[in-house]
Design brief:
It is built from 4 helices and no strands. The chain is an all-alpha fold. The protein has a domain of 54 residues. The radius of gyration is 14 Å and the shape is globular.
Length: 80
């Protein structure tokens, strides 16, 4: 079994456990894009923004009721 980064460093970003594999892949893509497309002077702010947004998403996903609302295809805007 392969050990993932959240398993190796569970205290670094504890909210990662609430993201599924697809979300983690998207998070990494978002972080990579933030680094690749920005002026180096703005990179830290952009990285902070991406991490903050994904942490908030993970907090929502950790709540069963909010997760259901976010992922429901019956609710406008749901179905991620």
């Amino acid at each position: 079994m392969t050990t993932t980064a959240p398993d190796r460093h569970p205290d670094a970003f504890p909210w990662l456990k609430h993201l599924d594999r697809e979300d983690r892949t998207t998070l990494l893509s978002d972080l990579s894009a933030a680094v690749d497309t920005l002026n180096p002077d703005d990179a830290i702010e952009e990285l902070n923004r991406v991490v903050h947004e994904w942490a908030n998403t993970a907090i929502v996903l950790a709540n069963p009721e909010l997760r259901a609302a976010l992922t429901s295809k019956d609710i406008p805007g749901g179905g991620r």
